[in-house]
Amino acid sequence: MVTLFRKKEVENISGGANNGESGGVDGGEKVGERVGERVGEKVGEKLTSNQQLIIELISENPKISAVKISSKINISTRKVEENIAKLKNMGILVRVGSARGGYWKTIKNE
C-alpha cells in the first residue's frame, strides 16, 4: 500500500520543507515529483500537485481508475477526470485501448 502525502503534510511531519534530500518522510524525492518536473519542462508549464500525484499513481498502476485515484488523493472523481483531460490535452497522458480494458501511458521527456 502506498501512502501519499501532499507537500504541506510532508513539511508538517518532517518539520521543514522536503527538498528532495534524504532523511525526509519518504527517504528522498518521490517518483511523481521527478516525472512531474520532466513533464513540466516538456510542456513549458508547471503541473499542479494533484496532476503530479495522478501521474505518479498512473505510473505505478496504468490500469488504475479515476475512482481509485480520487480516493487516494482525496479529491472528487470529477476533478480527477478534469485533471486527466488536461494531462491528455498537454500530451502527457495517452489512453491505450478501450475505457474498460485499456490502460494509461505516460509520455516522458527523455
What are the SSEs and their pairings?
Blueprint: H1 7-14, H2 31-43, H3 49-60, H4 66-73, H5 77-89, E1 93-96, E2 103-106
Antiparallel strand pairs: 1-2
Helix pairs in contact: 2-3, 4-5
Q: Could you please describe the fold and organization of this structure?
A:
- By secondary structure, the chain is mainly alpha-helical.
- It has 5 helices and 2 strands; from the N terminus they run H-H-H-H-H-E-E.
- It has a two-stranded antiparallel ribbon.
- The termini are far apart.
Entry summary:
The protein has 110 residues and is mainly alpha-helical. The chain has helices at residues 7-14, 31-43, 49-60, 66-73, 77-89; strands spanning 93-96, 103-106. 49% of the residues lie in helices and 7% in strands.
Which key phrases capture this entry?
single chain; 110 residues; mainly alpha; two-stranded antiparallel ribbon; 5 helices; 2 strands; 49% helix; 7% strand; globular
**Quick check: average pLDDT?**
74
Largest sheet: 2 strands, antiparallel
What would the principal axes of the Cα set say about the shape? globular
- Total beta strands: 2
Strand arrangement across the biggest beta sheet: 1-2
Structural class: mainly alpha
Distance between the termini: 29 Å
Strand portion, in percent? 5-15%
Radius of gyration: 14 Å
- The residue fraction in helices comes out at 40-55%
What count of helical segments does DSSP give? 5
Which parts are unreliable, with pLDDT below 50 for 5 consecutive residues or more?
A: 17-27
Order of helices and strands: HHHHHEE
